[in-house]
Amino acid sequence: MARNVEIKARVRDYQHTVQRARELASSEPVIIAQEDVFFPCPSGRLKLRILGPEHGELIFYQRPDHEGPKTSHYSLTPTSDPTGLRHVLASAYGEKAVVRKTRHLYFVGRTRIHLDRVEGLGDFLELEVVLTEEDSIEGGEVEAHRLMEPLGVDSEDLVPDAYVDLLGRLHISKSP
Questions:
Q1: Which among 100, 84, 81, 80 has a CA at the least distance from the CA of 38?
Q2: Spatial CA neighbour of 43 closest among 66, 65, 60, 67
Q3: What distance in Å separates the CA atoms of residue 74 and residue 64, rounded to the nearest whole number?
Q4: How far is it, in rounded angstroms, from Cα 156 to Cα 83?
Q5: Is 53 in a helix, a strand, or coil?
Q6: Residue 14 CB-density burial (10 A; 0-12 exposed, 13-18 middle, 19+ buried)
Q7: Which residues touch 146 (CB under 8 Å, ≥6 apart)?
Q8: What is the pTM of this model?
Q9: What are 69-81's pLDDT values in tens digits?
């Protein structure tokens, strides 16, 4: 399974964070509209990322929910028929939730900076330090920490949960 070290944080000043990411990045951002459809999965998280009518990715991942850098193990399979795959998976397992976001993706070395505008939740930053088999988790954590300060991320901004979990809690708190 592939792996990375990642952090997630709330963004207090989106435009300032965009400017900082642009200064750090090696190129202009890639802007991606994403719809992540989550399915019940007892051993981790399973989502279908829909990137367009003929482009998607089925992603299974396992990651602890705690603040700060955490290791994520994942498997990813592309699909040219995300609508058909969604129908099959929903028929078999049901749908747990849908997360819609616009992502600005920046690259700083082996680290992906995601600036996400998440429907119903607001603005977030994710850092994903991509690890090879030879790379240490500790080295990835150091790299993630090193990028937090120039991006304006404070420890109180860190978010332990996935967007799907944050949305789930939001819907529960809004229930009568």
A1: 100
A2: 60
A3: 12
A4: 38
A5: coil
A6: middle
A7: none
A8: 0.89
A9: 889 899 999 999 9
Tell me the backbone φ, ψ of residue 84, rounded to 5 degrees: -65, -40
- Tell which residue, 158, 164, 166, has the closest CA to residue 70: 158
Domain boundaries, the chain: 2-174
Per CATH, is 2-174 categorized as 2.40.320.10? Answer: yes
CB hemisphere CA count around 70 (13 angstroms): 20
Distance CA 149, CA 9 (A): 12
C-beta separation of 17 from 88 below 8 A: no
Indicate the length of the chain as a whole number: 176
- Give exposure, 109-130, as e/b (b: 16+ Cβ within 10 Å): eebbbbbbebeebebbbbbbbb
Half-sphere exposure of residue 81: CA atoms within 13 angstroms, side-chain side: 5
> Would you call 58 helix, strand, or coil by DSSP?
strand
Report in angstroms the alpha-carbon separations of 119 from 46, 155, 176.
20, 24, 22
* Chain centre to alpha carbon of residue 1: 17
pLDDT tens by residue, 99-127: 999 999 999 999 999 999 999 999 999 99
Distance of CA 107 to the CA centre of its chain: 14
For 171, residues 6+ apart whose C-beta sits below 8 A from its C-beta are none
Q: CB under 8 Å to 100, separation ≥6 — which residues?
A: 33, 34, 35, 36, 118, 119
